[in-house]
Design brief:
The protein is mainly beta. The protein has one domain. Strands 1-2-3 form a three-stranded antiparallel sheet. A hairpin with a 2-residue loop joins β7 and β8. The longest helix has 10 residues. The radius of gyration is 16 Å and the shape is globular. It comes from Erythrocercus mccallii. One of its GO terms (biological process) is extracellular matrix organization. This is HPSE2 protein. One of its GO terms (cellular component) is extracellular space.
Length: 132
Amino acid sequence: DYWLSLLYKRLIGPKVLAIHVAGLQRKPRPGRVIRDKLRIYAHCTSYHNHNYVRGSITLYIINLHRSRKKIKLAGTLRDKIVHQYLLQPYGKDGLHSKSVQLNGQPLAMVDDGTLPELKPRPLRAGRTLVIP
């Protein structure tokens, strides 16, 4: 939760954006409850983050499925480079792990008062996002 909160504070601005996710809006069948296990949110990127220009958008995606999901950005987002910050458990304990990795690299404090550099993984424009 610590690393997620830190990234959220650094990236997410106060303005929430409306998004449409094709393929998630399904008609419910009688007697069946549809629970969306893929949650996608969009915000303007924090204007306090000097790594990004005003007008940048931050998407955050939570995949609660047992399998990976693929997302293709459309519209004006299709032609944009994506900076991916993929947080996952680190180690063999899966979701019970006490450690977290960012884009495949374990996260740990440098020393008692120094945070590690949280580097994004650049993805080329038009690339399908794979969410484990």
